[in-house]
Design a protein that fits this description.
Order of helices and strands: EEEHHHHEHEHEHEHEHEHEHEHEEEE
Number of strands: 15
Distance between the termini: 52 Å
Radius of gyration: 21 Å
Shape: globular
Largest sheet: 10 strands, mixed
Number of helices: 12
């Protein structure tokens, strides 16, 4: 008889970033999930959001998902489809799919652990290692700080780097892109990300100016919902267009691909709902000869990248991995190393997803007091304060 789900517990960890992503995002939120089955199995997963809705995600898991999945067969793909149908009234994507990731990841973790292998091994490892590109949420950095970051990326062996653009004046963006290009030289790849800050007209003006610096891609310059604008943009842009971190369903990815509005898709594994939909989205892209570049979360994205038929690069935002934030209970499931002056990610082969979250972030230097919030499904939660100093 197949194992059946008997329980789902959640808790919320809020951790300050070592390098703030700006006034609007000084911290990240992880909703830790633990799923149990009637054969004694336990799977560990998580949902994640850097800014909006961690309490809402936790509430969806506790009050709408947990009771619904009790008794279901512990098969991640079967459960995913049933839960998505159940939650669709509340929205086909966004908070609903972010919450669903907590269950999907726990089920894949359980399945791999019971098979005595890692998630990478369970799905079939196709790449020995994958390239890592340096990334930073750095629009609030001064030019000098940005240059110093680019220098660290070069020293780390990153053959490609990505910076934020979207300053009030286009000349400021040009100054920053030029400064980074000077540091990394002509041979490394340079990507820019506008985080939906522009309209179509400004995007065309920006490309006229910034395109001269040899851009590998322009990421999400316009509101991610605006398919019409992206279709027009891609028809006229000499720079490849990347998007997807704010696209939440395979149907929406299909719309952008069929409209010929995108060159590179960037699904965030948590935001699309976990490993199950991520794999489906990747196959859709592959069938349409569209490049894939997973968004953030290298401990997770890196493991999945190793299973893909086509080599992809993994995004590593400086000092923002779970291991660097000090919220893992043990070693990371991935290793990033500098090999022959190239940064590469490989698996350490740990069982399941290869990591569990600690009760609170490890002690590390920081000026502010950190607040960790936890709550069991039947409680109102509690707040534990501790200092990093």
């Amino acid at each position: 008889m197949p194992a059946r789900i008997t329980g789902l517990a959640t808790r919320l960890i809020t951790v300050p970033l070592l390098r703030s992503w700006g006034a609007e995002a000084p911290e990240n939120h992880v909703i830790v999930t633990e799923l149990t089955t009637d054969d004694g199995g336990t799977g560990h997963g998580f949902s994640w959001t850097p800014t909006i809705g961690p309490q809402a995600v936790k509430a969806l898991l506790d009050h709408d998902i947990a009771p619904f999945i009790l008794g279901l067969e512990a098969n991640p793909e079967i459960v995913w489809d049933q839960v998505w149908k159940r939650l669709h009234e509340a929205g086909g994507g966004g908070l609903t799919t972010i919450a669903m990731a907590g269950v999907d990841l726990a089920l894949w973790d359980l399945k791999a652990r019971q098979a005595g292998t890692s998630v990478t091994g369970l799905l079939g490892q196709r790449q020995e290692s994958v390239e890592v590109y340096g990334s930073g949420v750095n629009l609030h950095y001064t030019v000098d700080q940005l240059v110093e970051q680019a220098q660290r990326w070069v020293a780390a062996g990153h053959n490609a780097v990505k910076i934020k653009v979207g300053k009030p004046e286009l000349r400021e963006d040009a100054e920053r892109v030029a400064a980074v290009r000077q540091v990394i030289g002509p041979d490394r790849l340079l990507m820019i990300d506008a985080n939906q800050r522009w309209d179509l007209a400004h995007t065309f003006r920006a490309l006229d100016v910034l395109g001269e610096y040899g851009l590998e891609w322009l990421e999400e310059p316009i509101r991610a919902d605006d398919l019409w604008a992206y279709r027009r943009l891609r028809k006229q842009s000499a720079v490849p267009i990347a998007l997807g971190e704010n696209v939440h369903t395979i149907y929406r990815f299909r719309d952008f691909i069929e409209a010929e509005a995108v060159d590179i898709i960037q699904p965030n594994i948590v935001r699309v709902g976990g490993i199950t939909p991520f794999r489906r989205i990747v196959e859709l892209a592959r069938a349409n000869s569209i490049r894939v570049a997973p968004h953030l979360l290298p401990e997770l994205s890196g493991q999945l990248a190793l299973t893909l038929a086509d080599a992809v690069s993994v995004e590593d935002v400086e000092d923002a991995s779970f291991e660097q934030l000090g919220i893992l209970a043990g070693p990371s499931p991935v290793k990033i190393s500098n090999s022959n002056s190239r940064s590469r990610l490989s698996s350490t082969g740990r069982p399941g997803l290869g990591f569990e979250f600690s009760g609170q972030p490890a002690q590390r230097p920081a000026p502010e007091t950190v607040v960790l919030e936890t709550a069991a499904p039947e409680s109102k939660g509690n707040r534990i304060e501790y200092s990093n100093s």
